[in-house]
Amino acid sequence: MSVDALPAEISSYPLAAQTREFFRQTRFGHVIGGEVDDLPDRATIPIHEPASGLEFARVVAGDRTDVDRAVAAARSAYKDGRWRNLPPVERERRLRRLARLYEEHRELLSDLDVLEGGVLRGYSGFMVQLAIDIIDYYAGWPTKMHGTLPASSSDLLVQQVREPIGVVGVIMPWNGPSAVPLGVAGALACGNSVVLKPSEQTPLTAVLLGRLALEADIPPGVFNVVQGVGEVVGAALVEHPQVDAICFTGSVETGRRIQASAAARLKRVALELGGKSPQLVFADADLDVAAATCAASVWGHSGQVCIAGTRVLVDRRIHDEFVQRMMAASKDLRIGSGFDPRSELGPLISQTQLDRVSGYVALGRREGATLVLGGARHGSKGYFHEPTIFTGVHNNMRIAREEIFGPVMSVISFDTEDQALSIANDTEYGLAAGVWTRDLARAHRVSQRLDVGTVWLNTYLRVDPGVSYGGVKQSGFGRNLGMASMDELTRSKSVWLNIG
Question: What pTM, to 2 d.p., does this model score?
Answer without folding.
Answer: 0.96
